């Protein structure tokens, strides 16, 4: 788990690509692998993640997670892409594709600002599944309390074997006000076992009582 000694926070760009029915996402994955992610790496964005939902839910979604150093780095990123000749060459099949070739209907984007309590994305040593969770609050005051409660629970997540990948407050996107975090585990069984340990952890009730938060 990240520690408070690491003071540099990050801004996470979370894109959700909604794939059209019966469309293959291969074009998108090829673009990510051959053009976009290498270009983002050249900009200094490391540990870019691509995820697909498990199961048969429709419409299918592909998630792209980009850690930026700060909001200015995020704002400059697209301009730098189109100033990058290598990117333009590698991305040409995607950028010049017609509408029938592009597999997604739309892209939704959220921005998440990490906190000093968990400032940087942490890459797990081994993970078979990732769990993305979004907690909405009814107003900004409730979200502030929710953030404080979660920060008290970081050690409980670790005790339960639920490995935190990133965590933060959403500063742009849908479902506002809200916080977003991601967990990693080896498989569904370990994930289920981890949540069982979490909800039965002896410190959890104490945090809920003193925080005054409705779970």
Notable features of this structure?
Alpha-Beta Plaits; 6 helices; 215 residues; disordered C terminus; single chain; alpha+beta
Topology, please?
Blueprint: E1 11-19, H1 26-43, E2 49-52, E3 61-68, H2 71-82, H3 85-95, E4 104-114, E5 129-136, H4 140-159, E6 163-172, E7 178-185, H5 188-199, H6 204-211
Antiparallel strand pairs: 1-3, 1-4, 2-3, 4-6, 5-7, 6-7
Helix pairs in contact: 1-3, 4-6
Report on the structure:
The chain contains six helices and seven strands. It has two domains: 8-113, Alpha-Beta Plaits; 115-215, Alpha-Beta Plaits (2-Layer Sandwich), CATH 3.30.70. The two termini are 23 Å apart. The model is unreliable at 1-6 and 209-215 (pLDDT under 50). Helix 1 (26-43) runs antiparallel to helix 3 (85-95) and helix 4 runs antiparallel to helix 6. The protein has helices at residues 26-43, 71-82, 85-95, 140-159, 188-199, 204-211; strands at residues 11-19, 49-52, 61-68, 104-114, 129-136, 163-172, 178-185. The protein has a seven-stranded antiparallel sheet with strand order 2-3-1-4-6-7-5. The protein is α+β, with helices and mostly antiparallel strands and 215 residues long. InterPro entries: Dimeric_a/b-barrel.
Short description:
It contains 6 helices and 7 strands.
Gyration radius, in Å:
19 Å
- Integer tally of domains: 2
Main sheet: which strands, in order across? 2-3-1-4-6-7-5
Range of helix content: 25-40%
Largest sheet: 7 strands, antiparallel
CATH architecture of the largest domain: 2-Layer Sandwich
